[in-house]
Design brief:
- The protein has 414 residues and is α/β, with parallel strands linked by helices.
- The chain contains 15 helices and ten strands.
- The protein folds into three domains: 263 residues, Alpha-Beta Barrel (TIM Barrel), CATH 3.20.20.70; 48 residues, no CATH class; 78 residues, DNA polymerase, domain 1, CATH 1.10.150.
- The radius of gyration is 24 Å and the shape is globular.
- The chain starts with 5 loop residues before the first helix and ends in a 12-residue tail after the last helix.
- It comes from Paraurantiacibacter namhicola.
- This is Elp3/MiaA/NifB-like radical SAM core domain-containing protein.
- Keywords: Iron, Iron-sulfur, Metal-binding, S-adenosyl-L-methionine.
Amino acid sequence: MGALSTIEKLGILADAAKYDASCASSGTAKKNSLGGKGIGSTEGMGICHAYAPDGRCISLLKILMTNHCIFDCHYCVNRKSSNVRRARFTAQEIADLTLSFYRRNYIEGLFLSSGIIKSSNFTMEQMVEAARILREDHDFRGYIHLKTIPEADPELVHQAGLYADRVSINVELPTDSGLTRLAPDKDARQIETAMGKTKSDIVEMKDAKKRFRHAPRFAPAGQSTQMIVGADSATDADIVGKASRLYDNFRLRRVYYSAFSPIPDASAVLPLKRPPLIREHRLYQSDWLMRFYGYAPGEVMQATEADGNLPLDIDPKLAWALKFRERFPLDVNRASREELLRVPGLGVTAVNRIIASRRHRTLRLDDIAKLTVSIAKVRPFLIAADWRPLTLTDRADLRSLLAPKAEQLELFAA
């Protein structure tokens, strides 16, 4: 078979990268090339494919350096025993592609991951070299996210952080037993050791930056990780507990969740069907509750059903409120901010506006309706100047009343 063209390689390696969800570019330091210095920017917008949590539109060239791999993780389409078409970019080719796409305003940065070819150290060296070419040879000031390899030499991972805005290491699966069974070449302790070293490097470099003006920056957008959902028997309670420990131990910016997707020639130990995508969505919602709404991990776990999984028909915040109805209703004119954040249907922005508004006047139900998408979801849990839910909060059928109604999609809907 002849050598693959750049377009053919791009088709293979961009498609292979789609399974990695951890590619948001929020949190990076703002850099630009105004004044004729350097090339690229993290401030602009190109042809966008996603939005970061801070609302900025992002577009990244998201590829693997290679989909060759010496590992044989059962859930991975690029495992060594998989019968897929293989391709490989050199470090120079990746740098050239990134610059070419950026100059055409297609992207604002690079997300680079890779299978393991030859060895972990060799692969990590090539990824670092691609970032080095961009930063040093071309003074590229756009966003770079490098997926680092925990089995690689710590010094190589450190070099990755000197060039990248964000680095990440996938923990892969929520439980150590699941990782041992489905990814026999990987070690949970080794992964966490690498994450711990990256955390200490980030802290050390931030401290150095405060004391020395020209100290090098190190992964200013922090580190993140990803967990596969539904490939093993781990429950949502297991996943929430794992995510909480990762946030606490390694100061992660984000934990991403990726619903397991059946792959060609799959191993017999894997499920035959993927989990419902709504399960992945519920885990992101639970993650949001811990990060922005003040819920402890144990409280999110209390929202799970008897099987340890979050309900699919309602969101985790509503599920928790229905289990702890004795906490409600709350007086919107008297309750604390922390209490109001527990009210289903009220987001952080709405709660902040309520706190600001009630300083000037007593709030009525119509005032709350202007701040939320669904006043029907809020009414059972709030008291306003002209509203009391009476027995509504305690109704046995309240869950069915508040759960979103299933709708039949129309093929030719406008």
